[in-house]
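Re: Re: ligand-bound prediction request (bumping)

Still looking for help on this. To restate: I need the protein modeled with N~2~-(3-carboxypropanoyl)-L-arginine bound, output as structure tokens. Inputs repeated here so nobody has to scroll up.
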Amino acid sequence: MNTTLEIQCDGLVGPTHNYAGIAWGNLASMKHGHQTANPRLAALQGLAKMELVAGLGIPQLVLPPHERPDLGLLRRLGFSGSDAQVIRRAIRHTPPLVSAAWSAAAMWAANAASVSPSGDTADGRIHFTPANLTGQLHRSIETPTTARILRAIFSPPQFFIHHDPLPPALALRDEGAANQMRLTRAGGRRGLELFVYGIDALTQTSAAGVPGQRYPARQTAAASAAVARNHGLLSRAVVFIRQKPVAIDAGVFHNDVIALAQDNVLICHEHAFVAHTVEDIRRRYRALFQAAPVIHIVPDRRFSLAEAVDTYLFNSQLLTLPDGRRLWLAPDECQRHGLAMEVLQSLRDQGAFSLLEFINVRQSMRNGGGPACLRLRVPVTPGELAAVHRGVMLTPRLARTLREWIGRHYRDRLSPRDLADPALITESRRALDELTQLLHLPNLYDFQRR
Ligand code: SUG
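Reply:
Sorry for the wait, this slipped through. Here it is.
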């Protein structure tokens, strides 16, 4: 019997989901930029994933989308007038700014925050640090709303503590739990937290990236270290790991595109980390738990970095069911990829997991977000779970309500040209206003407070 509970917090896809092609280094975003998206289908696909997980008896929580467009961003950058005028003027001058203001990227909740469960922290509370997402303009605007949402959902201070995001500096770029993994020992509450970074930006000459590297690193060592300190983690229960630059250049813009961990099991691609990392993890795990972790390394000759990025095999959710069995929830794309299926078969044969399911989240995948990107994990005790805001916990009834809400409010086509349409501002606000009632989260958005 498994006593560990883990809430899966999924970002509900917002009504302005679109393909702007603005995430440099994220190959899927770069490839699908300026195509027509289907926000309604995207939201329904995300909801279907949440329903599947909740149906397995795992606590599933809904994180509401952010208000878009972020007109405050455009106004701060000097565009003025009525809401419609602001959009029109910004489009005339700087279209990429408008794409950023409309971005629904907050759906990728793995980037919302770093989370340390109460079993790991000095004060026995769950610690949250909203990610500053400084590396990308369209993502950096998420932080204040994310912080507000997390505070509203995980509220009683005897259980939950919310830190300020790290200062928005290149040297402190932080993209949250997408670069954080955790290993535990069966039955125990303590974990070994693994923080993965792409660059040590305080000492490397170029803060933007390793000189000569094609794509920038989106997490810095200094950011990871600051989060670990703020969360009050024991130094012997933390490992800092550096991504291999070659992986970042192949399109691994977050660690969760190349590695995943659950319970005492770590699965990673051969080129996920720099040399000696795996030995280091083994040593630190052994020192903490007096036992050996289970580590599966997928060799590049069997499954290349390009194949990993193409299929998002490692961006699966590895879920522990209430009976203790592990389920691998893979993106649908893997099912049609012979080599990905061979890797899965061999991992299953070696006992990494026992159940396998596939999920179609293609609308999100086309922007570089697989099943694991769409969710933030929060390990909890039963007492902590009971303190979470009930209105956002997914029940069959809430799922039905949300499906109807999506059907009422979402468009089934959104092209970059549609972002000039002022009617979309009103439509999105109407949808979100109603959503706050459905989730019992009043006055969440700025437009409701004015
Ligand atoms: O930050 N895509 C997101 C995808 C995030 C995936 N998250 C994890 N791996 N955990 C990003 O690159 C695309 C936006 C656009 O092009 O419209 C985008 O932001």
